[in-house]
Please model this.
Amino acid sequence: MAEIINMPRLSDTMEEGTVAKWFKKVGDTINEGDILAEIETDKATMEFESFNEGQLLHIGIQEGDTAPVDTMLAIIGENGEDISNILIPSEEVTKDDAEASPISKAEEVITSNPREIPVGVEVIKMPRLSDTMEEGTVSKWNKKVGDSIHEGDILAEIETDKATMEFESFHEGTLLHIGLNEGESAPVDSVLAIIGKKGTDISEVVAAQSKSRTITDSSLAKSDSAELKPEAVEKEKLAPQFTPPPPAPEVSSNGRIVASPLAKKLASEKGIDLSRVKGSGDFGRIIKRDVDNYQPQLGGGLQAFTPVGVESVTELSNTQMRKTIAKRLSSSKFSAPHYYLGVEFNMDNAIAFRSQYNSIPDTKISFNDIIVKAVALALKQHPQVNAKWEDHQITHHHHVHVGVAVAVDDGLVVPVVKFTNEQTLPQIGAAVKDYAARARDKKLKPEEMDGSTFTISNLGMFGIQEFTSIINQPNVAILSVGAIVQKPIVKQGEIIVGNTIKLTLACDHRVVDGATGAQFLQTLREFVENPLTMVVI
Model:
């Protein structure tokens, strides 16, 4: 009996996979344990083995193609078995599905009509290079149309929401077409390029691509226009219209002021009385440069202080990273009920501890390293804070992976220090420095930013004393760390000069109750205010 093999979920965050390579072809005999294919996940490329025996009757996803988890990957059954009843339902598209996804409908024009794709031609799609990537931007093409492509060649650099990554080819041939120019963006699975034999006529494929874009653009435009409610249109009609101020009047004692239309417009915008401007054009005509160079004069010949400025703006296109930050943090803020717990710790012992620790040759740790280590040890004792919210359950993590927020030019990334509680202070410091340096160069790998169970954001180096952060989901808490401040404190009934630091814990109330968060902070205080305990545990 035929067995349907679905796209497996090979990691906890995997939502779809790409078939990097097939090791078997239709008609091959399959034994249990045989490697069927290499599947590219959001974290790595992994071998996928068969748990069934029989003959490979059908391949549902071709090399280089991407599909969601649980999509039909292949069918294994007996030699000559009829599987038509399995294939037909999977290939039917309902009217509702087609209308609900204009982009998928558009891509179908290219990918689903074999008559329009010549033999040996491969349509390369925009890859999903991270678990949160929804669209990508071509930062740079390393190949041009007409170049020979070999398997493993780097085709382009793709900017995702997290980093700029190299995209390599799984195919060989000639680059026949580039679907996106440098700087252009497109959703995942959009046509990126076409590879095939040199001289192959792909005019129908390219025409289908253009048609798909037209379908997509018109569908999205129709959707956007449908969102404009009649009330909004009516308000727009009733809104007062801006009327520019009238041009400077043509004042004349014995005739009129002669000025060019542009000079009149500029004078009106700048509030300049043209009767006071001396013209340098033909017959004393006032022109643009006269208005630009005009300086008001006081009666004594001194210049009047009348500031005349020019309004200007700089418009920056939203990067993929900025779009994703906006989307994910908005989702977190409005879906997770945030509340905040603020504490102030004494840092005198931590300062002395760091000074002594750094006296060891070739050793250098920061206060941030101390905080990260203390947090990791506290999380180990409080798995309720080291947790994840899901609709059907709450997951307590017994491993500690601390994400450390790093500011980059385009926004913010969160590399993850894995098994943080098991690492020494110098190891934590080296990892954070390495991640921060590579984050600013956009060289972090996707797997280095996945899997955090808790997040720390430290703005103390900027002099910020206290702030709150938005939870980095699926985490249920994030710690905001301020600067160390010298101030009067009371110790043993006396006022002395001490050093303190303010920390704010943002919690998801669906998982972390107030008392739970407070207990975590009590444990954290013990480690931070007595850092020697962290190295003797």
Notes: The radius of gyration is 32 Å.
